[in-house]
Write a structure and sequence with these properties.
CATH topology of the largest domain: Arc Repressor Mutant, subunit A
Distance between the termini: 20 Å
Strand order of the largest sheet: 1-3-2
Helix content: 55-70%
Radius of gyration: 20 Å
CATH class of the largest domain: Mainly Alpha
Number of strands: 3
Largest sheet: 3 strands, antiparallel
Number of domains: 2
Strand content: 5-15%
CATH superfamily of the largest domain: Winged helix-like DNA-binding domain superfamily/Winged helix DNA-binding domain
Shape: globular
Number of helices: 7
Length: 153
């Protein structure tokens, strides 16, 4: 690789990093707004815990901690808050009675749907004019970046 090639690659990666930074800032804003719509004062971290429980439908607290890379104390506080708000419920784990399975309540699912409604179609709107092949390419490339696998052409 020539020094020009290396500089071009470095410049491209820096531009990508800048775009990701802007995207992350926008996503944080959306998560904060959604959290407040689910329950005024809810922190984005609790919202992330909640949406992860919803996505998995039934998940143990230890699996959730591993998935979100949270310490058990941090997670326990968020779970207690979500349970107090009636957004999730705990049921005994049939395989380990000392553990609990976390799942969303009907009320929690309703609150989440209402919170997401304002920007539910925003990604569809943004991508409305994109060719479907480009959407698939972006998905494939983001997955490759996220997993650390070199994308195929």
């Amino acid at each position: 690789m020539t020094s020009d090639d290396l500089q071009a690659r470095t410049d491209a990666v820096r531009a990508l990093e800048s775009e990701f930074s802007e995207l992350i800032t926008r996503m944080r804003r959306i998560l904060t707004e959604n959290a407040a719509r689910v329950s005024p004062g809810m922190l984005p971290g609790a919202y992330k815990v909640f949406t992860t429980i919803v996505r998995h439908e039934n998940i143990s607290q230890s699996a959730l901690a591993d998935l979100l890379v949270l310490d058990k104390g941090q997670l326990s506080r968020a779970v207690r808050e979500l349970e107090k708000l009636g957004l999730i419920q705990r049921t005994p784990d049939p395989e380990d009675r000392r553990a609990s399975i976390l799942s969303p309540t009907a009320h929690g699912l309703e609150r989440l749907a209402a919170a997401r409604a304002p920007q539910e179609n925003s990604l569809l709107t943004v991508l409305e004019e994109w060719p479907i092949d480009e959407i698939h390419s972006l998905t494939r490339l983001l997955n490759a970046l996220q997993t650390g696998i070199t994308p195929s052409a």
